[in-house]
Design goal:
By secondary structure, this protein is mainly α. Helix content is 75%, strand content 0%. It contains 20 helices and no strands.
């Protein structure tokens, strides 16, 4: 994450070194590459396991970092910057898919939620590092050393994974994980089975000894069918989900706001600099948003555990808060009214927008899982993440050359529209 949005946070000094950069496109490579690679990543995790996928992801990040720091001579430098961003984006689907996979393989059932929550916070840590960089790197002479420092850090991570990261847990950890999952072992229907009208029940006739003696393995039955068939099954089940209007509403409401907010945050510096804000000021806004997201993670996990209760007041309140904060941000940055302490309003609202959206995400994911049951939860969440990336790509590419004030109002429009859509959902889908 820290490497990926580098040029969004230091756009001014970077353009002084490399000339006119299409920052939106540099950032957009992430969601662009996510869509075709998410299925191959899932297949690779299932077939090759966590170590091979980790080594490939860290290798591409290191290679991308090296590509970006080779030269500053035009026009080769700009091409190498884009190649580096593409290589970095290749690892994106793995970074998003690895935390739950890691927790399922390495941790007992009682620790998996906490393990996943900690691992997923790497996104916010990377965001914090990137915005701190924008506070420190304010001169053109600091850009190349920064890129080389990021490349060196990526190489160190790759070497550490190559030397240390094992293919599977130790025997003691494996036994602990297996014993923790034995009492609740069930057979989850595959995506292919869910394409029929009848959902198969768990097979209770199998011998208990055969079930409990086998250690958990990384290779799944679905992964063995191959990447192409797995992708086909994902789309088959995904299209079936779109027959449910409630799921369409949740997927669009989440994808529209999350995709726009994430993309907006990645290019926040070039959006606010024309409106009179310095790179350092915007960097502190981003740091505040990252810290707020890190602090709010336990609350988000608690809210996601409330899925057996009525969650409609929760997500409506969160979206309403996000809508009000976005409106205040647009008014403050647009200069329509001379608000007292307007800059502090911009700081507070920017942090609120990002933090509240991170808080709403697990609630909406659990809501989508309830709506689409008994379909696999991974399929419903996968479709929502795809919508997120598609919307983010459209926001970044269509925003090239657009007035920054307009981009802020687009974010308000998507948030307000999504709030109206969520109002019409039922209170519970159990």
């Amino acid at each position: 994450m820290a490497q990926f949005i580098t040029f969004g946070t230091i756009s001014g000094p970077a353009e002084s070194v490399y000339g006119d950069l299409n920052v939106n496109l540099l950032v957009a490579w992430g969601p662009i590459m996510f869509v075709p690679l998410v299925f191959a990543t899932a297949w690779l995790l299932d077939i090759a396991g966590l170590r091979v996928a980790t080594l490939l992801a860290t290798f591409f990040i290191a290679l991308g970092g090296v590509s970006r720091s080779i030269t500053t001579h035009q026009p080769v430098a700009v091409w190498l910057l884009h190649i580096g961003q593409i290589l970095n984006a290749v690892s994106g689907p793995f970074v998003m898919a690895a935390p739950p996979f890691l927790s399922a393989v390495w941790f007992p059932l009682s620790q998996r939620t906490l393990a996943t929550a900690i691992a997923t916070q790497s996104y916010n840590v990377g965001m914090f590092v990137s915005f701190i960089t924008s506070v420190v790197c304010t001169k053109p002479s600091q850009v190349v050393p920064l890129l080389r420092g990021e490349a060196l850090a990526a190489i160190i991570v790759f070497v550490a994974a190559l030397v240390y990261f094992p293919a599977k847990p130790s025997f003691a950890e494996l036994v602990d994980s297996a014993s923790s999952t034995t009492p609740t072992l069930t057979t989850e229907p595959t995506a292919l089975e869910l394409t029929s009208d009848v959902v198969p029940a768990a097979d209770t006739s199998a011998e208990p000894a055969a079930q409990t003696s086998a250690p958990p393995v990384a290779i799944t039955e679905q992964g063995n069918r191959g990447c192409l068939e797995q992708t086909k099954n994902f789309f088959v089940v995904g299209f079936r989900l779109f027959k449910k209007p409630a799921f369409i509403a949740v997927a669009l409401a989440y994808g529209a706001v999350a995709g726009v907010v994430a993309s907006w945050l990645a290019i926040l510096v070039p959006l606010l600099e024309p409106l009179g804000y310095t790179q350092t000021q915007v960097g502190w806004m981003g740091c505040g948003a990252a810290i707020g997201s890190l602090l709010i993670a336990p609350v988000a996990g608690r809210l996601s555990d409330w899925r057996n209760r009525r969650t409609k007041p929760i997500y409506l309140s969160l979206y309403a808060t996000c809508c009000v904060a976005t409106a205040a941000f647009c008014v403050s940055t647009g200069g329509y009214f001379h608000l007292p302490r307007a800059r502090w309003v911009v700081y507070a609202t920017a942090v609120t927008i990002v933090t509240v959206m991170n808080l709403a995400t697990p609630v909406l994911f659990e809501l989508a899982a309830d709506i689409t049951a008994p379909a696999p939860e991974s399929t419903a969440c996968g479709v929502m993440v795809l919508v997120n990336n598609l919307v983010g790509t459209a926001f970044l590419l269509c925003g090239v050359g657009v007035n920054p004030v307009v981009m802020n109002w687009v974010m308000l429009g998507t948030t307000a529209t999504s709030l109206c859509v969520l109002v019409f959902l039922k209170s519970s889908y159990h």
